[in-house]
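Question: Send over one sample?
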Amino acid sequence: MRLRDIAERLQCRLEGDGDVEIRRVAGIQQAREGDLTFVANSRYASHVATTRASAIILGASDPQSAPCAVLRSDDPYTAFARALQLFVQTTPPAKGIDRLSAVASDATIGPDVSIGPFVTIGAGASVGARTIIYPNVVIGPGARVGDDCVVHSQTSIRERVFVGDRVVLHDGVVVGSDGYGFARQKDGTHLKIPQHADVVIEDDVEIGANSTIDRPAVGETRIGAGTKLDNLVHVAHGVTIGRRVLLAAQVGIAGSTVIEDDVMMAGQTGVTGHIQIGKRAMVGAKSAVLNSVDAGAFVTGHPAIEHVEWRKASVIFRHLPALKKRLEELEQRLAAHTSSLRARKSSSKRSSKRPKRSTRRSAGRR
């Protein structure tokens, strides 16, 4: 594809030869002749001068020049993502229902769907137009999957789950499994609380491989429009996640917690139940969120505190061995000093108790 055509489709300002042929998009350190690369992070700016790419995407106001053609964009990272879409070549599965699938007679199947082999679709379920369902997917009775969705292999969409339009569920996703609800009995056993309420996945959500979304006993579990979940994310029963939320790998959210719009959580974050994370809040990696977080806050740590305070505390943590050694030395010096003071006091007391010598002269002496 000619660079001039790419610039037009990406709505970028072209600087240099627009007739150069671009074959793929590559990272700046791996790029070679025929590649389009990009820089959206200042850490990679030093590689611009030595890149072997045929063209590079840079910021519109970036003062850097490059040894190749340049596409100027107000948002280089988005331009890179859109450029990748131009070069991605996928072979969509054949339309229709594979003869090895089991589709209930009263299920509703929209036009132009693709349903692979060994897919099971339960009674009363519905699948929207142009949706692709890969092999070995189970869609339970009464579940609804919207238009233009992609459901990858080994996914389980349990009974009565609602999935909106343009949703992507990657391999092994389970939506609507039982929430973790048990009532402890007097004899120490645990009585299972039935988990039969609703799960709603709104439009344009993407859920990573082997993630699980639990259904509650009452109410609903809901994931808002435009939210993106990474692999191995667990959303417990009754959780409400707002719009455009980003959850990285291995995030776990306990029951009945509310995550408001535009929240970002880094990998391996754990969130306790029945709290609220305010809009646009950010949580650093490996944090344990044990209390509600204000809108716009940035917290990190275990337990999670303001990120600035956590950074100060982490500096002190690194110095703890040296501080411990100094404290032990001070304790030894203090003990020695205290012992010396006691010894002096004891000696002083003994001296004060000794009888004084008489200085009177005998009578009659001159």
Observations:
- DSSP finds four helices and 38 strands in the chain.
- Residues 3-87 form a domain with the Udp-n-acetylmuramoylalanyl-d-glutamate--2,6- Diaminopimelate Ligase; Chain: A, domain 1 fold (CATH 3.40.1390.10).
- The chain has a mean pLDDT of 93.
